[in-house]
Every structure is written in structure tokens, then in C-alpha cells.
TrEMBL record:
Transmembrane segments: none annotated. It comes from Trichodelitschia bisporula. This is Putative mitochondrial carrier protein. Gene3D superfamilies: Mitochondrial carrier domain. Solcar repeats lie at residues 20-102, 110-201, 218-302. The keyword Membrane applies. One of its GO terms (cellular component) is mitochondrion. It is a multi-pass membrane protein. Belongs to the mitochondrial carrier (TC 2.A.29) family. GO terms for biological process: alpha-ketoglutarate transport; mitochondrial citrate transmembrane transport. The lineage of its organism: Eukaryota, Fungi, Dikarya, Ascomycota, Pezizomycotina.
């Protein structure tokens, strides 16, 4: 057998399985905690308020949130739900995405396809492991009717959680988790794909070779475009909020599913209602990008000094 023939018939080398390091998990958790504690939660609260109260525009939603407690109204649901979600996001998402990407590559998938596969499977695992009950409790706190309006003391965070658990069990706590899973899968798939398309466009515009590294500003631009354009799936987010909302409406389906919730929103508010909250969601995607990309290098240096491990996590 000739050498070329042997090479042609050879099995492609197995991809290297990258270890999930503590420093990677610490970096992801730290950046996510910073992001949500600064602008992340105010944008999340505004987005959720608009999705739940679809007659409100941006100004109306901001006024509604402010009326609930001034500046603190914009941080409703931060502690503990947004903090739990942010701190576990990196661990669950990174670990599962890394495993899924490795196995997809081992079956012969390209880097592009295996990367999207890893992101989608990681997003799915994150939704069912931690994000379902966290988003549900955040939405409940943002949309519940305040007992204080009638002069009574409003229920606290844990009291609200236990009340739902006693009345509806685990299903009540995880209400809307299927919509969360659909959103996460489409989010990570489209963000990854659209960001890569934007990166290729930037390379072409700037004359960089294929595969050549982009500068920090170029990476922020590409990721922001990918994050912003991935808001095409906002109807899934509005459906998720409606399923988890505690607002009172006798016209809502008694047993809400993704399908009948979509029908209810469309019949009540039309196509425009399905895209309520898309503006703050785009802003949220851009802020997340700035945190993960622009602050990522500084965070990596700090984590390496503290842990002594080289951080290999991709932005």
C-alpha cells in the first residue's frame, strides 16, 4: 500500500478532550455575577415587565418598575434567584457544553457544528438544571400583585417560594421550564452561529486572513451583533414570562403550555405583543458581551494569579 493511500484511508485523529478547570468555572461565575449585579438585572426586570404587561412601552415599563420601589425595583429577583442562576450558569453550561462538543467532534463534526452542538446541549442542560426555577421565581417576584397595595405586608422571597411549592409542588416552581429550554437552545445556537458570521464579515472588511485573531473591539462588535440578532426568538421569551407570570387574567388558559400560551398572546396582543421587551433584551445581550469579552482578559489574568491555573475558557 502506498503512503498516500495509507494516509487517505487512515482514521482522523480523535479530538483532544479539554479538561474543565476550576479557574474556568470561577471565571464564568465571577463574570456572570458582575454582569447581573450591574446592568443585567435592571434590563432583565424591564424586559420581563414589558413582556408581562404588553400594553406598556419602554417608558411605561420603567415607570411601572420605579413605582414598585424606586431604584430597588429594578433589582427585584436579584437575591437569591439571579445570583443562583449567574453563579451556576458557568459551571453547568461550561461542563456540559465541553462534553457535548468533544463527543460531536469525535463523531466527525466540524469545529463549527461541534461548537453549536456543545452550546445547544449546554443551554438545554442549564435550563433544566438551574435556570427553570430561577427564571420562574424572578418572574413571580416581578409580576406578583403587591399585598402592600392593600395595606398588608408583602410576602418575602422564601415565603413566596414556599407558598408556590406547597400549592403546586416542583412543577409550580419549574413552571415554564420547557419554554426556557427552547429559548436557551435557540439562544446559544443562534448566538454562536451569528457571531461567527459577523466575525467572518469583519475579517473580510478589515482584510484579515481566515482564522486570524480579532482585536478586543472587533470581538465585542461581532459578539454584540450575534447577541442582538439572536433576539429573533423573543416570542419564546414572552411565552416563558407569561407562563411564569402571577398576574391575574380570567382569559388565560387554566393549564398553560407553550402552544396555548402563544395562541393567547397572539389573540390578545397580536404579533407586536410577541416581541414586547425585545429592546431591553438586545441591550442585555450587548452588556453581557461587554462583560464577557472586554472584561474577560482582565478577569483571566486575575484568576490565574489567584489559582495559579492558566485559563483556557473562550469568550
Amino acid at each position: 500500500m502506498s503512503a498516500p493511500a495509507a494516509v487517505a484511508g487512515a482514521r482522523p485523529p480523535m479530538p483532544e478532550k479539554k479538561p474543565v478547570k476550576f479557574s474556568n468555572l470561577l471565571l464564568g461565575a465571577g463574570l456572570n455575577m458582575f454582569e447581573v449585579t450591574t446592568l443585567g438585572q435592571p434590563l432583565e426586570v424591564t424586559k420581563t415587565t414589558m413582556a408581562a404587561h404588553r400594553s406598556d412601552g419602554m417608558a411605561g415599563a420603567i415607570a411601572r418598575v420605579w413605582g414598585r420601589g424606586g431604584v430597588f425595583g429594578f433589582y427585584q429577583g436579584l437575591i437569591p434567584w439571579a445570583w443562583i442562576e449567574a453563579s451556576t450558569k458557568g459551571a453547568v453550561l461550561l461542563f456540559v457544553a465541553s462534553e457535548a462538543e468533544y463527543y460531536a467532534a469525535s463523531f466527525g463534526a466540524s469545529n463549527f457544528v461541534s461548537g453549536i452542538t456543545g452550546g445547544m446541549v449546554g443551554g438545554l442542560a442549564q435550563a433544566y438544571a438551574t435556570m427553570g426555577f430561577c427564571t420562574c421565581m424572578k418572574t413571580v417576584e416581578i409580576t406578583k400583585h403587591k399585598a402592600a397595595a392593600g395595606g398588608a405586608k408583602p410576602p418575602g422571597t422564601i415565603e413566596t417560594f414556599m407558598g408556590i411549592y406547597r400549592a403546586e409542588g416542583i412543577r409550580g416552581i419549574n413552571k415554564g421550564v420547557n419554554a426556557v429550554a427552547v429559548r436557551q437552545v435557540t439562544n446559544w445556537g443562534s448566538r454562536f452561529g451569528l457571531s461567527r458570521v459577523a466575525e467572518n464579515g469583519i475579517r473580510s472588511f478589515t482584510g484579515k486572513a481566515d482564522g486570524e485573531k480579532l482585536g478586543v473591539g472587533e470581538k465585542i462588535l461581532a459578539s454584540a451583533l450575534g447577541g442582538g440578532l439572536s433576539a429573533w426568538n423573543q416570542p419564546i421569551e414572552v411565552i416563558r414570562v407569561e407562563m411564569q407570570s402571577k398576574k391575574e387574567d380570567p382569559n388565560r388558559p387554566k393549564k398553560m403550555t407553550v402552544g396555548n400560551t402563544f395562541k393567547y398572546i397572539y389573540q390578545s396582543n397580536g404579533l407586536k405583543g410577541l416581541y414586547r421587551g425585545v429592546t431591553p433584551r438586545i441591550g442585555l445581550g450587548v452588556w453581557q458581551t461587554v462583560c464577557m469579552v472586554a472584561l474577560g482578559d482582565l478577569a483571566k489574568d486575575w484568576v490565574e494569579k489567584v489559582t495559579g491555573e492558566a485559563v483556557t475558557a473562550k469568550h
